[in-house]
Amino acid sequence: MNTAELTKTARMLMAPGKGLLAMDESNPTCNRRFAALNIPQTPEMRRIYRELIVTTPGLGDSISGAILFDETIRQKISNGAPFADALHQAGIIPGIKVDLGTGELAGFPGEKITQGLDGLTERVREYSRMGARFAKWRAVLAIADGIPTPGGMDANAHALARYAAVCQDAGLVPIVEPEVLMDGNHSLEHCREVTEQVLRTVFHQLHAQRVRLEGLILKPNMVLAGANCSEQPDVDQVADATVTCLLRAVPAAVPGVAFLSGGQPAEPASARLNAMNVRWAPRMPWALTFSFSRAIQQPALEIWSGRAAKGNAARQALLHRARCNSAARQGRYSLDMERSVC
Description:
By secondary structure, the chain is α/β, with parallel strands linked by helices. It contains twelve helices and ten strands. Strands 8-7-6-3-2-1-10-9 form an eight-stranded parallel sheet. The mean pLDDT is 96.
């Protein structure tokens, strides 16, 4: 393990004014999004769409790193360059999703466990040879009657910590992603309590597994009321609940927190991140940025819809959302930015 290199890469990923682009949807997930827009669900169409993203001029001005899927890191763009090389040329650090999805957690009805620790060392080393410099592993925790349980949280936190240790040993910065889902009717306060408990459990396990906090990035959910909750908080309430939760649970040694969008629409995700950086910047020991997927990609995907003639317009929409989130990362976002594509 080269702690200095891990720390350097983590800081580069948290570069001022930049965030992460999650383009690591599994093939089934990507196919579902394609099907909704009548786009053929083939490896070549997925390659073309992802090439459209990584070849967007100027994307590296707002995006520091991009998370790829296994299929994508093995593919090439039209000029024959591997995707990892194309990202490097754009000034974007390539990353890779290394978990193998979720399954039922035995003995814990309604709870999930992320799979993929078996063979992880070999996979991570291969991805490193292919140009990846960081990795991602997602744990999924739902809020419902009686869940998440302490046992469910412990199991997922332990898997996250073992993954992180394997990555650091191979020279990759781990993105540690414990996602408390926004599905359900839970209140903002209930989500804050659960998220804080999850984060405390995760960092306990990271310490136990000797993971260097300076060489990782945390990718949590924002603290939100459930999608079906009758009382939806405003932007400032979300910002205050989220940062308060992080200050109570996330050590200052962590260089950065990059939020997942978790199904939030694009504009609210940007506005909430912006409010955190406006209201709390002087008190935060870590950088606070984004690691969005749909909240950056969805407008571009809808414009493109598999049509080559719409490629430039889709790139402009992608760049617009990246720039909006770059502004939110700096506390400079406003709804006025949404009235014209940058």
